[in-house]
Amino acid sequence: MVPILTTALPTDLAHSVLTGQVPEPSRAVSPKEEYRLFCRQEPSIPLFSRDWWLDAAVGSQGWDVVVVKKGDVIIASMPYVLRTRYTMRVLSQPALTPILGPWLHELEGKLATRLSGENELMQALIDQLPSFDHFAQAWHHSRRNWQPFYWNGFQQTTYYTYVLPDLSNLKKLWAELDGNIRRIIAKAESKHRLQVRDDMSLDVLLELNRKTFERQGLVPPYTDEFVRRLDAACAERNCRKLLVAVDPHGIPLCGYYYVWDENSAYGLISGADPEYRHTGAASLCLWETVRHAASVTRQYNFCGSMIRSVEAYLRGFGGEHVPYFRVSKTPSPLLSLRQCILSHMGNR
User: Fold this and answer.
1) In a domain, 23, yes or no
2) pLDDT for res 333
3) Residue pLDDT, tens place only, 189-213
4) Same domain for 270 and 252
């Protein structure tokens, strides 16, 4: 007689006893898969670091992430894009992705305790990075401590953006605008009778964007198809808006495209017809962008700029002048030599 098993067995093991088949071992979940789930649960992950954004920008296989966990919970992460150029491995970030870099769970305790914890988490992220010949990422402006990266041979360049930290009071935001900006906006509406529409196609923006680059003798550093792919991902999640200033005949003069998450909006793409710069379309359109952003999120990040003329213009919108870090490292002697030559030529 076959003895009866009185001890309960796991379902898969019981199945193997009855059928004689050995069950397949459960598949380990990769850090990237865990990060995907985490992005759906953690609203403080910046928009540009979220898995769906990176999927849209470089494809699901074009990026990876390192994570630090406490138990089963992710407490630090750093996504990156890996590209190979002439056998050189480059860790960076995609086009139209102004922010990447590390995310850390908010730490508690005394300042010294928090800094110690940040240093440990960042070191753990650095230790997991794959080998590379060049690394470069621009960090979120809230990430102020890059010292563990310095200790590991990285370099840092400070850039600046303008941020409106509180969009809750539109009257105050209007009052904080430079007086000349307010006059330009008023003139755009009264004298030139411009209107701002939110029903124009993405093709209108792309054409205006090309005109902006052409005026400088440049071409956009991204394709129309790339922008459409990002736009489709954002539209699916209802986190993007395109506003276009038009004249009384419906001719598009300027467009602003921005995206947002729960915490901030980010100016991403803009463009203007240079023949109509005198109308104030850009100022009107940007102000309406800020007004709309106030209805969907908390802050507005203008995402730049280090270009002197653009900085002077954005300054007039009353934002805080906020530093952010571009962190880099180039272990490759060949790439380091190239960078030195280009830097020397640029300083001549």
Assistant:
1) no
2) 72
3) 999 999 999 999 999 999 999 999 9
4) yes
- Quick one: 205 and 293 in the same domain? yes
Dist. CA 44–CA 38, nearest whole Å: 11
Give the number of other Cβ atoms within 10 Å of residue 59's Cβ: 12
Query: Which residues span the domain enclosing 54?
Result: 31-157+325-346
User: Which candidate, 158, 157, 161, 160, places its Cα nearest to that of 328?
Assistant: 157
Q: Does some domain include residue 272?
A: yes
Which string of b and e fits 3-22 if b means at least 16 CB within 10 Å? eeeeeeeeeeeeeeeeeeee
| Whether residue 277 sits in one domain with residue 227 | yes
pTM: 0.88
Q: CA-CA distance, 32 to 124, in Å (whole number)?
A: 16
The amino acid sitting at 281 is: A
Counting the structural domains of the chain, the total is 2
Position of tokens 């370099």? 155
